[in-house]
Amino acid sequence: MTQSRTHTCGELRLANAGETVTLVGWMENIREVGNNFAFLVLRDFYGTTQVVIENEEMMNIVKPLNKESTISVTGIVRERTSKNPKLPTGDIEIAPTEITVLGRCRYNELPFEINHSREADESQRLKYRYLDLRNPEVKANIILRCNVVSALRTAMTEHGFLEITTPILTASSPEGARDYLVPARKHPGKFYALPQAPQQFKQLLMTAGFDRYFQIAPCFRDEDARGDRSPGEFYQMDMEMAFASQEDVFAVIEDVLPPIFAKYGTYNIASSAPFARIPYRQAMEEFGSDKPDLRIDLRVKDVTDILQNCGFGPFENNIVKAVPVSNCKLARKAVDKLCADVEVQAGQKPYWFKVDESGAIAGGIAKFINADEKTVEAVKSALSLEPNTLVFLSAGKREEAQKTAGVMRRMLGAACEGHMDKERYEFCWIVDFPMYEIGEESGELEFCHNPFSMPSGGMETLLKAERGEIDPLDILADQYDLVCNGVELSSGAVRNHDPEIMVKAFEMVRLGEDNVKAKFPAMYNAFCYGAPPHAGIAPGVDRMVMLLSGEESIREVIAFPMNKSAQDVMMDAPSKVTEAQLKELHIAVTEEE
């Protein structure tokens, strides 16, 4: 049966009084206030409308129904005697002449109250996600996501980009995360892989002569969940430009994103072009992070030369970083809690002292600093210390000290009044990433990030490193990250489009031309037919919407997310399959010992 409606539950106003209308939706609530008299709230996608039951016939229809049953109500619109100014439809109500049950809810008890589903246990919310999504607050995030994706598509099309879809079944590629593998039935023992990103395909499109490509691309990575990362799959606005430089990519992103953030965001202020550009090493020194939140005005200072030999054991033979916070009046209890929280997140213990109202250094490790008047003066001068300043310190190997200082800076910015302008979106570019690093496990030179990036200076730089004229660790990549409010939205790069430079770059990490051909056969061969210089980036759609909505978990902006263990508890996935299916795919499952 097809059920028609004349209006939605969010549409009717006082001007509709006297009209006969038909509404459909879910019976959100019913409140009986006497014999054959009740107030019923009807909800659909668009809003809610009050229906007043005033006779035995209508009451006999709705009284046996459980909440969340779907019904059709035909009746007359009239002005409410007790209006609700909080509702768009709060001036009117419906006096029904006909009620039809469309879909009966067969459960007396719901897993959670629909309008309070966000207060329920997350596992219950994910198991009954179709009920969770009935909550207008939850639904609003999905609507926001739709609007943002639509705005991105419109903006990219207006900038001359073509939306081209790339394959989902492809070859396994070493791109930094674990692949999801798909057995190939017609090719026993061989597997497809779900793409971690359309990286190679979009570069091949540039080689094929397409000038500007974009795609709202699904990506698949078998990695652990975080607050800003969903396990399994995620979406990104993938883009690539031929005959383009880093500046061309920056110009497009700086034109496309700020208006969307200003229009759809929780805050209506977003950075305008040009975004701040911060070299990677500077970001680590000044902010303790390669994804700094520029809304916080605090900076990390290096005080190694001053405090390394002050007599405090943890500082000896270590790098020492400081984060001074002026006009900070945190109580001792709050300082201790902050120290504990920093240690949990950073894995390193922080230290502190303060400059009291008289200008004296007190509290925390003050006695080690006060032991030498020269140290006191040097610290005050280096950190420009004034009365009522709190100073947090970290120590360790350079990366450890930087990381701990970065966590301190972020937490202090949020905890100390006047040091964080929260209600805005502040973008920046992190540039000049190292091309190589020493691998923690191998102890040898490895690619630091994306092996497809062009080394700054091209072949000449690689040859200098090969001849020993420069340290390979000093080679920079034409690579960049887009950061907003301390969240990394995307990585991008000017691509290495020259086969000779590509081979030389891989030789630096002990892989020869044969390895390059074997790992990236299509790309290597395509580049041998004349490839244009090209560059691109791929901002994450899920993270973007998470920022815009003000949510702290990425699962709140995904219609059907997996849980932290990469399980879909609603669909019971992953699940076992039959022996017949395994046999057809030439696969045997063995039990773990």
Furnish the topology, listing elements before pairings.
Elements: E1 20-34, E2 37-44, E3 47-53, H1 56-62, E4 70-79, E5 92-103, H2 122-127, H3 129-132, H4 136-158, E6 162-163, E7 180-183, E8 191-194, H5 199-207, E9 212-221, E10 232-242, H6 246-264, E11 276-279, H7 280-287, E12 301-302, H8 304-307, E13 319-325, H9 332-346, E14 351-355, E15 361-362, H10 366-370, H11 373-383, E16 389-396, H12 398-415, E17 427-434, E18 436-438, E19 445-447, H13 458-466, E20 476-484, E21 487-494, H14 499-507, H15 513-519, H16 521-527, E22 534-537, H17 541-549, H18 579-584
Parallel strand pairs: 6-9, 11-17
Antiparallel strand pairs: 1-2, 1-4, 2-3, 4-5, 7-8, 9-10, 10-22, 12-13, 13-16, 14-15, 14-16, 17-20, 18-19, 20-21, 21-22
Helix pairs in contact: 4-6, 4-17, 5-16, 9-12, 13-14, 15-16
Features:
593 residues, alpha+beta, OB fold (Dihydrolipoamide Acetyltransferase, E2P), Gyrase A, domain 2, 4 domains, eight-stranded mixed beta sheet, five-stranded antiparallel beta sheet, globular
Summed up:
With 593 residues, the chain is α+β, with helices and mostly antiparallel strands. It is 30% helix and 25% strand.
